Amino acid sequence: MKKVLIINGPNLNLLGTRQKEIYGNRSFDDFLEELKKYSTEKGIALSYFQSNSEGEIVNKIHESMGKTDYIIMNPGALTHYSYSLHDAITSADIPVIEVHLSNIYSRENWRSKSVISPAATGVISGFGLTGYMLAINYISESKKQP
């Protein structure tokens, strides 16, 4: 069974209450139960981590080395300036799927630049919470084995 870690960054703990017109009205905790069931059906053991602290996320990536087959990451606003996350991803040598709920290219100009994307295997943007399921689908079909 592949081991996948979801890492959500700053303010994603507020899903369901924060800017519902952009991010929807469902909390990630509610969605996570559905996603875990879906992942299990796809042969994936899913774990979850959320932090509003850049350093904690870097530490979690480091801790995942040798223990995690893939990371699905929504870095939140860290997407646009966190070179420390970029470096942690490239150092950890764990494939990362970058996920964004909104289409970062159709919003404010500053949101269209990701310093994470060059270190990521791929990017899913603009499909809401479904983006996490799309990442799970990719991972389940990937040839990389645990």
Tell me about this structure:
There is one protein chain. With 146 residues, the chain is of the alpha/beta class. The protein has one domain (2-141): 3-Layer(aba) Sandwich (Rossmann fold). Helices cover 35% and strands 19% of the residues. The protein has five helices and five strands. Strands 2-1-3-4-5 form a five-stranded parallel sheet, with helices on both faces. The longest helix is centred in the first third of the chain and has 14 residues, at 28-41. It is globular and about 40 Å long.
Short description:
The chain has 5 helices and 5 strands. It has helices at residues 20-23, 28-41, 54-64, 83-92, 130-141; strands at residues 2-8, 44-50, 70-74, 96-100, 122-125.
What labels would you give this structure?
globular, 5 strands, alpha/beta, 5-stranded parallel β-sheet, Rossmann fold, 146 residues
Mean pLDDT: 91
Number of β-strand runs? 5
**CA-CA gap between termini:** 7 Å
Helical run tally: 5
Structural class: alpha/beta
* CATH architecture type: 3-Layer(aba) Sandwich
Q: Roughly what percent helix?
A: 25-40%
Could you give the order of the helices and strands? EHHEHEHEEH
List the helices and strands and how they pair.
Layout: E1 2-8, H1 20-23, H2 28-41, E2 44-50, H3 54-64, E3 70-74, H4 83-92, E4 96-100, E5 122-125, H5 130-141
Parallel strand pairs: 1-2, 1-3, 3-4, 4-5
